[in-house]
Amino acid sequence: MSIEKELERRIEKIKKGGKQKYHDSNAEKGKLFARERIHLLFDSHEILEDGLFANAMDEDLPADGVITVTGKINGQTVCAMANDSTVKAGSWGQRTVEKILRIQETAERLEVPMIYLVDSAGARITDQIDMFPGRRGAGRIFYNQIKLSGRVPQVCLLFGPSAAGGAYIPAFCDIVIMVDGNASMYLGSPRMAEKVIGEKVSLEEMGGAKMHCTTSGVGDVLVDTEEEAIQFTQKYLTYFPANFRKKPKQIDSVEPKAFDKPISEIIPENQNAAFNMYDLIDRTIDEGSFYEIKKRFAPELITGLARVGGRSVGIIANQPRVKGGVLFTDSADKAAKFIQLCDAFEIPLLFLTDVPGFMIGTRVEKQGIIRHGAKMLFAMSEVTVPKISVIVRKAYGAGLYAMSGPAFDPDCCLAFPNAQIAVMGPEAAVNAVEANKIAKLPEEERAAYIQEKQAAYKENIDIYRLASEMIIDDIIDPDQLRQELISRFAIYQNKNKQFTERKHGVYPV
Ligand SMILES: CCC(=O)SCCNC(=O)CCNC(=O)[C@H](O)C(C)(C)COP(=O)(O)OP(=O)(O)OC[C@H]1O[C@@H](n2cnc3c(N)ncnc32)[C@H](O)[C@@H]1OP(=O)(O)O
């Protein structure tokens, strides 16, 4: 056989991956082969693969259980690793770890995004001395991820299991996209949980995609198919620069479609009546540009990427339709991570505020709402990207602060004409201050007294008064919001800000 034919034969064998029975069982579950995933994700065929021959001389293995490549997505260079679950369930042997480390280090050198296509049984138990404890052992994968965090975008597409140590790869990524039904992550499998702590639980309950995208918050985006996960990733990357030194690309602005009702007609005057914040977002951003992150987790707060006038913008918005838009421990965590993500990659922030404050009560106090709320304030304060705060309706208590109120150095704080900024709403405030007096009044006089005090309180917190005292920068017509934002983000784009000089803060984690 010629040298060329021999090379071809070897490559063909390696590229087939593991045993046919594992290809078949994957296909039955609707799972693609790792190489198909790579081809769908990357532009055409400009894919460079290093380490193809790793483990190919091993008698027990057809090749290694991970494929590592560099190529282009949307014309931008990107590095990726893809577990091949047909080889020892995608578990990490010594070469697997070495290959992952090498591709991470390439991403670091080139300063380009790093994508993890995960479908893995975690550490290869049979090879543990070679791959687990050492300086270049599996722990180094996480060390590298932490080093890359904020330098280049890191995306995890979870197609299958991500068992035990493997579950930390998603945990250190900026975003985790999970395929419903197949993706899972857990530190201990249901079998292990039953044995060790006597808990009987299904895989879905323990670490399924729905659970992680709605309850634990480790998953960010739930999709039905692998193709959807890949398309989401391709679109997601368009909002980001290749690394922290660059700015996201500005593209052509696309006007939102015509709506029957303008913003001014969708926001009820009654501060307690719910409206759908998505309706306001749709009327403000470029048509079809909203990319929501953590849609199912803590939905009382909306976080998502969008474009305004062609520019990438990160939106943090209270949702009055869910739990009245009150902030909880999970919503605060959700905001903190999203704010850090946008700030790391020069994506300006837009806060759309309609918030009654943080939740109160023993349940949330025991969950540490003070600590979680502090994380949100910490992240929001530290950002150096442009940040615009819009008080859509109410901004009460620490809710005002968390949503980048005036004290937190937004580039501007704007308000709609019906907005209210206050320590608390009129009902709660009158109750707090006047409760003793009200209790002493005859029953028939109470309602009128409360009404009078509430009216006086409302006058005191009138938004025009706050504007006249320069607490807010401007009161704007809600129907002019989009134009106002386009102008302001354009002006603020060259902002030069350092938060403060220090090694790093002491985070309230
Ligand atoms: C840093 C600390 C860690 O990460 S400790 C890692 C601990 N990992 C685990 O406990 C996961 C164990 N594996 C599993 O639960 C299953 O294999 C999962 C991931 C659910 C996949 O199931 P399934 O698709 O049915 O595959 P399977 O079990 O038939 O295995 C296929 C072949 O792969 C092997 N395999 C599997 N996991 C490992 C592993 N962690 N280390 C070494 N080998 C592993 C199986 O033995 C099997 O091999 P073979 O093809 O029969 O030769």
From TrEMBL:
Residues 258-501 form the CoA carboxyltransferase C-terminal domain. It comes from the Bacteria. Residues 1-252 form the CoA carboxyltransferase N-terminal domain. InterPro entries: AcCoA_carboxyl_beta, ClpP/crotonase-like_dom_sf, COA_CT_C, COA_CT_N, MCCB/AccD1-like. Signal peptide: none annotated. Coiled coil: none annotated. It holds the Pfam family Carboxyl_trans. PROSITE patterns: COA_CT_CTER, COA_CT_NTER. PANTHER family: ACETYL, PROPIONYL, PYRUVATE, AND GLUTACONYL CARBOXYLASE-RELATED, METHYLCROTONOYL-COA CARBOXYLASE BETA CHAIN, MITOCHONDRIAL. This is Propionyl-CoA carboxylase subunit beta. It comes from Oceanobacillus neutriphilus.
